[in-house]
Write a structure and sequence with these properties.
This protein has 182 residues and is α+β, with helices and mostly antiparallel strands. The protein has one domain (37-176). It is 36% helix and 24% strand. It has helices spanning 2-28, 76-93, 135-142, 145-149, 166-172, and strands at residues 37-43, 46-52, 58-63, 98-104, 107-113, 125-128, 153-155, 163-165. Residues 9-33 and 178-182 have low confidence and may be disordered.
């Protein structure tokens, strides 16, 4: 009988210890929920990927105006929805520390990265660019100019690679669509 009680006592201690460890592990995990959200919305008929920041700003990230390169099924609105979803996923996963250009399967791409030298992968892909385009120039044209002008390009290590510190970019980007000339 005493042995049974002793066994229950150990079980209770083990459960309490595991519960405490789980709580500590949960507290130490970064939480990105509720900070910045990404979504697609039309402005003057043009689909735009927006970032809604925790301080209440509505920052236009990308205007989806190129209609003639991608297949008819990948309309500007569909690309906007998909890329907004990818931005959100990367942000929530903690992988959107940098926006960088690169190559994936021979195509020029823009991806999320945790460091300046992280490779673009299927899981970090934000969007594909037109084949033969200059990725750095395309990103400069697509992204909010005020954020880029603020000096947030942290590394240009080749003709086609560009790294942008995402938090610095977002903090300096304007929240007014009319100031953009994309």
């Amino acid at each position: 009988m005493k042995l049974k009680l002793f066994g229950h006592g150990l079980t209770g201690i083990a459960i309490a210890s595991l519960s405490a460890l789980t709580t500590i592990a949960t507290i130490n995990q970064p939480s990105y929920a509720g900070r910045t959200t990404f979504y697609c919305e039309k402005s003057k008929g043009v689909p735009i990927t927006f970032a809604s920041t925790q301080d209440g700003r509505k920052v236009p990230m990308i205007k989806w105006i190129s209609q003639d390169y991608f297949s008819r099924e990948w309309t500007g609105e569909r690309r906007c929805q998909e890329v907004s979803r990818r931005f959100q996923k990367s942000y929530d996963n903690g992988t959107l520390k940098y926006i960088r250009t690169g190559t994936l399967r021979g195509e020029p791409v823009v991806c999320a990265a945790t460091s300046q030298n992280a490779p673009c992968t299927d899981s970090t892909l934000l969007f594909t660019l037109k084949r033969g385009s200059n990725p750095k120039e395309t990103v400069r044209r697509l992204l909010n100019r005020r954020g880029l002008v603020a000096g947030n390009i942290v590394n240009e290590n080749s003709e086609s690679t560009l790294n942008i510190d995402f938090d610095a970019y977002l903090n300096n980007a304007t929240d007014e669509i009319n100031t953009e000339s994309n």
